Amino acid sequence: MKKDADAGKLPKNTNQSFAVDVKVATGVGGVSSIDGAANTTPKSKKDKRVKPESKLVEENWYLSYAILVDFYNLNGNSSVLRSDPNKKLSGWVKRQRNNRREGKLCQKKIDELDKLHFVWHRLDHAWDTKYNMLIQYQNKHGNCEIGTNVNRPLAEWTQRQRREYRNRHNFVRQHNIDMTNIQTRNDFDLNKRGSMMTSDRIDALEKIPDWFWEKKEVAKTGVMET
């Protein structure tokens, strides 16, 4: 599928129901078909009204969101890397994370992004690569039970995430750290005390269907997750 390089346009293979949702949610009058083609009907001179900036921003947000939906449908995730050819989309995704962190993103848009299992943090490239591999494995096999005889690098990575999670949990418990306090949790994640497993990574992994933290025997391999 040919990706639209402009994150301000609807993808050509966006389904009809979504196109309608975008049109209704934003009041976009220029979308006239399911492929996002603009309405080319000439407007009279009397109809030349400048739209309020807030409305234009809202329209552009949903048009960019449509591009992300297209990316999600193609890749099974919404983790757009900085190295992605569509620089406008990767930049837009980065801005959503920044806007939420700064309290500039409304709950409605947060909910829309969560529908795409949006990851609300900037993952380092190596972790992000393995994370996307895990998503692809789950999409194909319907589980996250990876034996070392199936994919050793990915199996060892998932085992390491579970160990880091346990280390974090034990450290928090031993030092009576209040993780319900947002500032405390952010400081803890920033310093990575006791574990490399941050709250954002926990959130990202738990968004993958069938992900588990407990020790679990892998079927038909005799391999035990540690």
TrEMBL record:
Pfam family, one: HA
Chain intervals for the UniProt region annotation (Disordered): 30-51
InterPro entries cross-referenced by the UniProt entry: Helicase_assoc
Lineage top rank: taxon: Eukaryota
Signal peptide start-end: none
Domain Helicase-associated: start-end pairs: 58-118, 124-208
Protein name: Helicase-associated domain-containing protein
Organism for this UniProt entry: Fragilariopsis cylindrus CCMP1102
